[in-house]
Amino acid sequence: LGWKFYDADDYHPLENKKKMEEGIPLNDEDRIPWLCALHDILRREDTSRQDTILACSALKKMYRRVLIGGASAIESNQPEQPGENPALKILFVHLDGPKDIIAARLEKRRGHFMPLELLQSQFDTLEPPSAPENFITVSLEKPLPEILLQIETAILQG
User: Fold this and answer.
1) pTM (two decimals)
2) For residue 136, what is the domain's CATH number?
3) What would the pLDDT profile of 115-149 be if each residue is shown by its tens digit?
């Protein structure tokens, strides 16, 4: 697509990475500043009219609201309203699959700070997207070319 790509894992503070390396799941207090920083990146790119893809484990509805509306989404429990700082338009792609497939992929990763032992905590935290969120769900059980085509089609259809 020629879009800018960001991996949210690159923006975790050192404290978060150390915590995960020690097998301790992150909590909301750990994640919110990280998500606010990611929102700022997305806002900057949107202001520059740069289409962007962010790979991010936005596990909870609240986390996705923060990505859309920034810190004010936490206080209001709603995305920001149109006005001085309108909410970003984001299509969330929920990559869905059985824990065993995801575990097998995690086992192949080398040099990453999140150990396999934290996978269950991710599933425990997960709140799959639902209406009225702007999202698609894509099965990880499909071959990679099919996954990419489904995502690209959804993006291009707006």
Assistant:
1) 0.87
2) 3.40.50.300
3) 778 888 999 999 999 999 999 999 999 999 999 99
Residues in the chain: 158
Which domain range does residue 14 map to? 4-157
Give the count of domains, the chain.
1
The amino acid at residue 121 is S
- Residue 95 and residue 93: Cα distance in Å, rounded? 6
- Tokens standing for residue 113: 């700070």
CA–CA separation, 24 vs 116, rounded Å? Answer: 12
| Nearest Cα to Cα of residue 42 among 79, 89, 84 | 89
Q: Are 135 and 129 in contact (CB under 8 A)?
A: yes
Q: Return all residues near 79 (Cβ < 8 A) that are at least 6 apart.
A: 65, 68, 69, 73, 87
Distance CA 157, CA 103 (A): 32
**Residue 86 in contact with residue 37, Cβ under 8 Å?**
no
| Structure confidence by residue, pLDDT tens digits, 47-80 | 999 999 999 999 999 999 999 999 888 876 554 4
Give the separation between CA 103 and CA 119, rounded to whole angstroms: 7
